[in-house]
Write a structure and sequence with these properties.
This protein starts with a strand and ends in a 9-residue tail after the last helix. It is 39% helix and 20% strand. Helix 3 links the parallel strand 5 and strand 6. The radius of gyration is 15 Å and the shape is globular. It has seven helices and seven strands, in the order E-H-E-E-E-H-E-H-E-H-E-H-H-H. Strands 3-2-4-1-5-6-7 form a seven-stranded mixed beta sheet, sandwiched between helices.
Length: 190
């Protein structure tokens, strides 16, 4: 079983949103999985679950470094690090990358998700900066949209709430990147 760990030292960067979208995709494709919400703030619309024949475990972590963070990183096969293009987010993001670099398995895959991406200069420049770093991670983006808040208010992942929307297509691109990293087939949006 592969473990997908979604983490960042900072709260409010989209960890739970990404976990919900990945878990919803696994549900839609009837892929057996476990879902663990370690974030004491809660707020996730996906129930914790443990399938006996799970192919993947998705783990939502709190927005803080803890004594367990290094161990979680050591046990993960896929590490997803959401970040926003904000001066307040970048120092915590860099500390998170340091923890990952010091503790990840040699073959673990790291995906950085620039959350609330817009076509504006700050988002675009930050995205291009990350790509140009030559680090051992891949970079993708999750678009900014009020549909994420509307879906959350309805208690649903965006890909279930508004599956044909442009933001849902962006979310599915992130989800499929995670699925590939976990050696799972992509979800096809029909």
């Amino acid at each position: 079983m592969k473990t997908v760990l979604v983490l960042n030292q900072k709260g409010g960067v989209g960890k739970t949103t990404i976990c919900e979208e990945v878990a919803a995709s696994l549900q839609r494709t009837e892929t057996p999985f476990c879902f663990y919400n370690l974030d004491p703030q809660g707020g996730c619309c996906i129930e914790q679950r443990e399938d006996d024949d799970a192919m993947v475990a998705v783990v939502d972590t709190p927005g803080a470094l803890s004594d367990q963070t290094a161990q979680w990183v050591q046990n993960a096969d896929v590490l997803v690090v959401p970040v926003r293009a904000s001066g307040k987010d970048i120092p915590a993001f860099n500390r998170m990358l340091d923890v990952i670099d010091a503790n990840k398995k040699k073959d673990a895959k790291v995906i950085v998700v620039v959350n609330q991406w817009t076509r504006h200069t700050a988002s675009r420049d930050f995205y291009e900066y990350l790509i140009g770093q030559g680090k051992d991670f891949v970079v993708t983006r999750l678009p900014q949209s009020e549909l994420f808040q509307k879906a959350s208010a309805a208690g649903k992942p965006l890909t279930d709430f508004a599956p044909k929307s442009v933001p849902a297509e962006g979310a599915l691109l992130v989800v499929n990147m995670v699925r590939r990293a976990a050696d799972l087939d992509e979800e096809i949006n029909e």
